[in-house]
Protein 1
Amino acid sequence: MGQEVLVLNSDYEPLNICNMRRAVLLVFLGKVDVLHEDGALLRTVRNEYHSPSVVRLKSHIKRPRPKLKLSRRSIFARDNYTCQYCGYRSNDLTVDHIVPKRLGGETSWDNLVCCCKKCNCQKGDKTLSQVGFTLEREPRRPKYVPFISLTKFISGARNEVWRDYLPVFDGFARRHATEDAEAAVAARR
Ligand SMILES: [Zn+2]
């Protein structure tokens, strides 16, 4: 019963990742529909069931919009782990103040971007025009806030079936899943 189950709201919004015990209880209480099963069998005294992998609540749960925290990780996720100056993609990035702090640049969604170390070195505390950099896109506060934590989201994106239900940061999730697979292959060599 160690596996995890993705729980969707009735409108398919990802709500949570719960353990199998809880998911099975929700199924038996008739609170959820099972959208996907995985191969494992669960046995009860009378029956056998395939264990659920994705379930959807029958009635809609209203939830407050969570506050989006400004953090290095959330900047990385918003910018798809891509340097906003040169387009370099990596897991080893920094965050740059577009308008440098010494010129009054704020630590805010629209003044922070994902930046590779090379570009960060070059830019230092200069302005964009001083170094001739342009932005890949205007940084903004992301509209959508995933209800489930980013960590859970990332681990969820590794699950082939779940991935389709995790539309947030879509490219990001897929890329991470691919990179993980590639890293696993490389590690085996
Ligand atoms: Zn760069």
Note: The longest strand covers residues 32-43.
Protein 2
Amino acid sequence: MKKIVDIGDSESKQKNRSNIFFSLKNSSKSIPTRYLYDELGSKLFEKICNTEEYYLTRVEQYLLETNASEIVKLSNPTDIFEFGSGSSKKTTLLIGEQFENNPNISYSSLDISRKALKMTFEQVKKINNKIQINLFKGDFLSDLKKVQLINTPRLFLFLGSTLGNFDDKIALAFLTGLRKVMKKKDYFLLGIDMLKEESIITSAYNDSKGITKRFNKNILQVVNKKYKLKFNKNNFEHQAYFNSRKSQIEMYLKSKKEHKIQLPDNSSIQINSGEKILTEISRKFSFKVIQSLLKKSDLKIEKKFQDKKKYYTLMLIRRL
Ligand SMILES: C[S@@+](CC[C@H](N)C(=O)[O-])C[C@H]1O[C@@H](n2cnc3c(N)ncnc32)[C@H](O)[C@@H]1O
């Protein structure tokens, strides 16, 4: 197995610890979305991608299958650098296509989950053993500046509509951070989920097999282990609904009863019956919103690829 380089530093780990206790004590409680992705969370996410209801993966896969050759022709990268790669199954379509053009390409992934990086390695290696693979374990919101990017030009990838997990402020911080490291010849391929009929969106986060429910509840096991807490997942139910005012799915854990959670510093968190802990937002975009975010980040869409029903869009982006 290829070595995974851990680029998360102890200072940010300490900051994460105080932030999570603060957001749990707050009147509107939340747990950062990245804690959904431990070993089990990453496996469950892969299963979600294969559910009938989760159209996002299928449509993005189709768009990559039909457009990979044009995307690599336009961008012609020497390094393909992916944020939050998950298993990288879809990405192999692009890497394989570019490997045909340039057998010296490298592939890099920056993901918070060791399991995701391991799956990525196994997938990319299958294309050809000679591809140089760089695996960075870290936070794509804070650790990009610690990565040494050597090979250029690069094609940055942010797939799976992961940008939808950010509110405007965080999305802008991510996009401007990326813009700063982009060179003139670099491209950025962004996959985003578009606004559509509400019932289709809601079903994708409430699959009939209950996998999303398990994925959501697993976040409690992750913070229990990391911060020595004693959340009982049976005291919570999975809730995911569409907030039409904000055009986003909001995923919560809703408490079934009043109870307390002891913190390591001997203080405690009071959780009321019916109180909700936010674990993820998943925004659904219009072009107007995404274009405005890109413009404010000094980025422009060079070409976009959409399915017939306009469920999903891949955008090939450059510096303004
Ligand atoms: C929605 S999944 C998408 C996975 C894959 N790109 C796809 O399209 O199927 C989000 C991915 O980002 C990773 N991730 C989540 N938050 C992260 C963070 N703050 N920093 C780095 N990676 C993160 C997860 O481990 C996961 O692999």
Note: The chain has a mean pLDDT of 95.
